[in-house]
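Sequence in, structure out. Go.
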Amino acid sequence: MRTYGAHRAWLLVSAVLIGGFGPVFALGATESTAAAARWTLDLLDWPVDGAASYDAATTRFLSALTGGFLLGWGVMVLCLRQWVFDVAPEGVRRSLVVGASSWFVLDSAGSLAAGAASNVLFNVAVLLLVVGPMWLPARDGAHLPTPSTTRS
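Output:
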């Protein structure tokens, strides 16, 4: 099926997009390497005006944590592509869509609450890029078993 190949290829795109933010934010852990993280944060809280600050140790710590989570999530998507997708393409597809959608809702709500509404627009773009063709089922009629159809 043509979605199968597109999904397999897109998982690599998703992994790079998600995981690529990891090192950027992890570099925000120290003042001497925080420039890329500061600029990215400034961009996401449009307009780019230099107002983003990485002066507080707690900001740098949170940036390091965020970088680690993003890198780990990206690597997990890559691992799902390499080791699980061929066995359960629909399960992997749904996992990516649900995970990315969950990130989108919480991140966007938090951005609105923090007064960074412009980030919601960036989130829409990232969500569309991360999910890409994964919105479509892996195969015609593909489905996951429901609890009533599985054996204990």
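Check: DSSP finds five helices and no strands in the chain. The chain has one domain: 2-138.
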